[in-house]
Amino acid sequence: MAALGWRISEPERLVAVRGVGLFDFAFISSFREAMRAHGAAVGYRKLFDLSRADIDLSNEDMQTMVASTRLTAAMTAGPIAIVLGRTPPPLLVDMAVLLKDRIGSRRRLRLFTDETLARQWLFSEVVTAHPSYEVLLSPVRALNVGFVR
Fold first, then answer.
1. Which fold is adopted by the domain 5-143?
2. What gap in Å lies between CA 61 and CA 67, rounded to an integer?
3. Which whole number is the average pLDDT over 36-61?
4. Are strands 53-56 and 45-49 parallel, antiparallel or unpaired?
5. pLDDT digits (tens, 9 = 90+) for 53-73
6. Tell me: the pLDDT tens digits for 74-90?
7. What is the per-residue pLDDT for 73?
8. What are residue 109's DSSP bridge partners?
């Protein structure tokens, strides 16, 4: 399998993240910047196959991701599917469940053990046309307003 990276499919309005490597804040920042540059930050389905990735996110990283992800919900962002694999490591499951729990119902996000089921769900969800996303042009760290539960 290739290094951790992403592919954007405009006809499907899908961004697929997969591969072997470190899923950390640097990767997430690069990913978000590329999505903004391509115009795929909102209105695209996101498929994260993290079944072969190593997760390294601090509490601050997680808070920043949650704040940014929750913010885009108001702008009709596309659904997110996270594939954990058939026998995921406990840390991956914990991080994914924590992320889903913190984001709450403001984003369409589901966890899967199988990519086929994840794709079926993603394509059953409505994806809207590009709304304005000027607020997303600020750096991701600026969105860290501190998550209070």
1. Transcription Regulator spoIIAA (3.30.750)
2. 10
3. 89
4. unpaired
5. 988 889 999 999 888 877 765
6. 456 789 999 999 999 99
7. 57
8. 80
